[in-house]
Design a protein that fits this description.
- Helix 4 links the parallel strand 9 and strand 10.
- The chain has helices at 45-49, 121-124, 128-140, 157-169, 182-187, 199-205, 220-229, 242-248, 258-276, 293-301; strands spanning 3-10, 20-26, 33-42, 62-63, 67-75, 91-95, 104-108, 112-114, 148-152, 172-177, 191-194, 212-215, 236-238, 251-252, 284-289, 308-312.
- The chain is globular.
- Helices cover 30% and strands 27% of the residues.
- The longest helix is centred in the C-terminal third of the chain and has 19 residues, at 258-276.
- The strands form 3 sheets. Strands 3, 5, 6, 7, 8, 15 and 16 form a 7-stranded mixed sheet that branches.
- It is α/β, with parallel strands linked by helices and 313 residues long.
Length: 313
């Protein structure tokens, strides 16, 4: 019979004004699956981007949302989740799901992990997409203890995760940010520096050699300054300027790339553990009722929400 649910879908390609909150059913879980009562759905720019235009192999309607936090409602026979044994009622997070903007969802069990205790559902629902992206960026440039890296977009969701994970590695970060974001960068152990005209001179003016550069914002300024400061192209990575990366021979990563998928799947448990130990936090800007997903998406698209955004069913 399954569980009656509601879920946001894109019935046609385009902006969020085309989305619809539809009645649906979360089917009974089969072996290797669990059904989750969604307590919070994390929001990311990719949610909107991936339904804005046709994509190969993706058919309409498209369920929206990639990460959730909630409670186990049902478990398929002989099934364990990504973090091990599970019981009905256990609190979990899940990442790389399909259709997380929902009240209930049946998913492959390996995508679910026990929710970190210190995090609220709204915070936990925003841990893994930004966290796995940040971890991969640091891994890609082989950031090592004692080094200093330059991080563009340091006050954003991915940037804040990079700051925390870099600190745990013993890596110092010079982080570009707006005036409003500088205190956030400083609060997470980074050295804030204003982006805009003269950025290259300001970074050089610190007198600190930059070993690698991470671009989480995608501007020409970010790329140009990275290229000027880091000679080894293998130690530059972007998540937002793939065209410039192809042009200049440095790294560009995305969750749809097979290597990125494998890395991010493999690091999920470690990030959950760090959050459970209180060593990773998720700054939260605002929550919205699930019914207000379109308004929440507009808020997120403004570009400087000051933290993560979650939908609450």
């Amino acid at each position: 019979m399954g569980v009656a649910a509601q879920q946001w879908i894109a019935p046609e390609w385009g902006g969020p004004q085309r989305w619809r909150l539809a009645d649906t059913t979360a089917p009974d879980p089969q072996q290797g699956e669990v059904t989750i009562r969604v307590r919070a759905a994390g929001m990311n720019p990719a949610d909107r981007k991936h339904v804005a235009a046709p994509r190969p192999g993706v058919a309409l309607p498209v369920p929206i949302g990639y990460e959730i936090s909630g409670e186990i409602l049902a478990i398929g026979p002989g099934t364990r989740i990504g973090s091990g044994e599970v019981q009905v009622g256990d609190e979990v997070v899940a990442f790389r799901v399909r259709g997380g903007y929902a009240t209930a969802l049946t998913i492959p069990a390996e995508k679910a992990f026990r929710k970190p205790g210190p995090l609220s559902h709204a915070e936990a629902a925003n841990l893994l997409l930004a966290g796995t992206t940040a971890a991969e960026m640091l891994d890609r440039v082989h950031a090592a203890a004692g080094e200093t890296i330059l991080l563009h977009g340091a006050s954003g969701a991915v940037g804040v995760m990079v700051l925390q994970l870099a600190a745990l590695r013993g890596v110092r970060v010079i982080g570009t940010a707006s005036a409003a974001g500088a205190e956030r960068v400083r609060g997470f152990g980074g050295i804030p520096i204003a982006y805009g005209d003269g950025l290259l001179d300001r970074v050089r003016g610190t007198g600190i050699p930059v070993a690698a550069a991470l671009d989480a914002i995608g501007t020409d300024e970010a790329v140009d300054v990275s290229l000027a400061l880091v000679e080894d192209r293998a130690r530059i990575v972007t998540i937002a300027a793939p065209g410039r990366a192809a042009e200049h021979g440095f790294g560009a990563i995305a969750g749809t790339q097979p290597a990125s998928t494998a890395f991010r799947d493999g690091i999920r448990g470690e990030l959950v553990r760090l959050a459970d130990e209180g060593r990773l936090v998720v700054p939260l800007a605002r929550t919205y009722p699930l019914s207000e997903a379109v308004e929440a998406t507009r808020f997120l698209a403004e570009g400087h929400p000051g933290g993560k955004v979650a939908l609450i069913p």
